[in-house]
């Protein structure tokens, strides 16, 4: 048998609730004009219990929404995507010209003078701790991979994106999870003017380093597809970036379609 304890017997949750009610009642009763004493004791106790449960649930919801960190794309729930939730974080790496890795930094504690939460620095520490973001609405030249040749301007597009977002704080509106498990998001970079942001996808298209993505599950944020296409047309007209030698080159969409057809023909 377990050893005998000299501690007083453990109080039930009902005893604790009654005792808490008495404290709250005695504190509130003198301060209100309405006589709380007219309510039945069971009703007042029920209100207290429901209020405590409600406060606990609200606290849990606030923790999940504003404090709990999302480690990676697998941890993003369908509900969060469906609600098009905004998240903020720091871009830790840019491996391709139209996607990057985001370290989610919710709530406070990430900046001085209240800095008590820190972003890992090493590749080992960051493993499985970043969200793979695919930029919504933008399609950049493809780099060499899986035996496929790189598109012209792939390196320049990658360099542009790295210079624009790497190690910077950014907001992302999650809108979709693609077939590769990446989170398709509208990325917004804060400017020096408070509450003003730049849409990274649009800025990349404006600079001539990406085309408008028009394939399946395309999303464009509040600006809409027409705005994206208008900015692409301006970049082409101005011969910016990948359009410097004209507009007849192979687009990223055409490149992927060509390679998909070649793969299918093999078998």
TrEMBL record:
<keyword id="KW-0378">Hydrolase</keyword>
<feature type="domain" description="TNase-like">
    <location>
        <begin position="85"/>
        <end position="245"/>
    </location>
</feature>
<keyword id="KW-0106">Calcium</keyword>
<dbReference type="Pfam" id="PF00565">
    <property type="entry name" value="SNase"/>
</dbReference>
<protein>
    <recommendedName>
        <fullName>TNase-like domain-containing protein</fullName>
    </recommendedName>
</protein>
<dbReference type="InterPro" id="IPR035437">
    <property type="entry name" value="SNase_OB-fold_sf"/>
</dbReference>
<dbReference type="GO" id="GO:0005739">
    <property type="term" value="C:mitochondrion"/>
</dbReference>
<keyword id="KW-0540">Nuclease</keyword>
<dbReference type="InterPro" id="IPR016071">
    <property type="entry name" value="Staphylococal_nuclease_OB-fold"/>
</dbReference>
<dbReference type="GO" id="GO:0004519">
    <property type="term" value="F:endonuclease activity"/>
</dbReference>
<dbReference type="GO" id="GO:0016020">
    <property type="term" value="C:membrane"/>
</dbReference>
<comment type="similarity">
    <text>Belongs to the LCL3 family.</text>
</comment>
<keyword id="KW-0255">Endonuclease</keyword>
<dbReference type="GO" id="GO:0016787">
    <property type="term" value="F:hydrolase activity"/>
</dbReference>
């Amino acid at each position: 048998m377990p050893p005998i304890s000299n501690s007083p017997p453990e109080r039930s949750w009902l005893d604790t609730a009654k005792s808490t009610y008495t404290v709250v009642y005695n504190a509130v009763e003198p301060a209100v004009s309405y006589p709380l004493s007219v309510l039945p004791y069971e009703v007042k106790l029920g209100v207290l219990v429901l209020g405590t449960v409600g406060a606990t649930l609200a606290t849990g919801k606030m923790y999940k929404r504003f404090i709990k960190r999302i480690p990676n794309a697998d941890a993003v729930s369908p509900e969060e995507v469906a609600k098009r939730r905004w998240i903020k974080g720091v871009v830790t790496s840019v491996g391709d010209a139209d996607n990057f890795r985001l370290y989610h930094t919710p709530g406070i504690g990430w900046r001085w003078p209240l800095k008590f939460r820190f972003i890992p620095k090493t590749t080992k520490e960051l493993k499985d701790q970043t969200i793979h973001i695919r930029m919504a609405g933008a399609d950049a030249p493809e780099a060499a991979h899986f035996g496929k040749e790189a598109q012209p301007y792939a390196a320049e597009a990658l360099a542009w994106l790295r210079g624009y977002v790497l190690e910077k704080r950014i907001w992302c509106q999650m809108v979709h999870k693609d077939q590769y498990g990446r989170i398709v998001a509208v990325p917004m970079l804060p400017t020096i003017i408070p509450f003003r942001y730049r849409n990274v996808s649009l800025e990349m298209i404006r600079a001539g380093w990406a085309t408008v993505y028009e394939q399946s599950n395309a999303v464009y944020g509040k600006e809409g597809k027409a705005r994206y296409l208008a900015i692409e047309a301006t970049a082409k007209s101005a011969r910016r970036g990948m359009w410097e030698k004209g507009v007849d080159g192979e687009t990223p969409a055409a490149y992927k379609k060509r390679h998909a057809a070649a793969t299918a023909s093999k078998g």
